[in-house]
Amino acid sequence: MKAAAAHAIAKLAHEPGLEASAHGVPAIFGPEYLIPNPFDQRLILRIAPAVAKAAMESGVAQRPIVDFAAYRDSLNRFVFRSGMVMKPMLERAQGEGKRIAFADGEDERVLRATRVMLEDGIGRSILIGRPTVIEQRIERFGLTLKAGRDFDVINPEDDPRYRDYVALFHEITGRKGVTPDTAKTIVRTNTTVIGALAVRRGEADALICGLQGRFIKHARDIQSVIGLAPYSSQLSTLSMLIMSRGVFFPADTYVNIDPSAEEIVAITLQARDHLKRFNIEARAALLSYSNFGSRDGATSEKMREVFERLQEVAPDPVVDGEMQGDLAINAELRERYVPNSVLKGEANLLIFPNLESANLSMTLLKELNNALPVGPILMGTRQPAHILAPSVTSRGVVNMAAIAATEALGVNA
Fold it and tell me: Thinking of the domain 97-227+382-413, which architecture would CATH place it in?
């Protein structure tokens, strides 16, 4: 068993390391990287199965593992806090071969995510970037990836589809002030637009962008090229916060500054559908500074209207409000106000009246609770597209790719 552990450690040392920026360790096996960092999350994923298998083969194990796939899955959930929540998405995406276009194809995190996606069968990456730069960085990080075999490339500087992309982009935006010359410049320089055009043309199934630049600029580019879903009048976002207490989904955290009651109704229903993809039943709280009519004002009246409209158009969601944040989480306190509320236990879908309250609450909750963020999940697009937070890790990129691939399948669990 000691030998099995040693072999597992040695094998891991030959694999590409984690992001050097996060761990301060060399990324490639060599004189300065003979064994993995002691805090390398992957150690438990390699050593535990190897030792367990050796114990079974030697006859020492008194409780042999019957299903190693399930055992590895339990280890993944232990190592990656997002594992349990993301499991339905990852399982649905595996083996489906969905093509995910990455606007930041030269970024280290995207390259590492490409390797994980390839190993786990989550999807095939389309990297938008300069081939020579991508190749150099793959070599630097020791990722053993090869263009054409393991991923595809769209070269903004020289791609045979360039004229077709320009023609389509000008066709879409020509009556919005974009001249032919401007269209040529944008399609040569804006990788989000290039990725969106690939999705629009059916050459990619989903787009992931956002590691560089402003969120709202990416959102506008996506909306102008991919467009809105037939049922949607605006884009919105659903964030996920994984805490020790549980998983919570605030919305809309990035896009709409002051959404109308009608728009919040649409956001709530779209968010409910996304929670279904995670095999989670939405328990929605409509948040305000007022508790069930205790105080009048613009936002409290708006959230009351949202509740009334939801009762009319979709009475099936478990939703109540308007209410303050403590009532959304504390069921006992809520019962004192509304004993017959359909909302039981903690709310997991937190619907805010405006962007200011949503974004502030999300960022404070994340920092105060050491929460693991996933997303934001962009809602309302005609085809799947998501905008990453600049601070996302390579694992976060993998999670969003799985979410995008699942959307591309049209799955609604």
Answer: 3-Layer(aba) Sandwich (3.40)
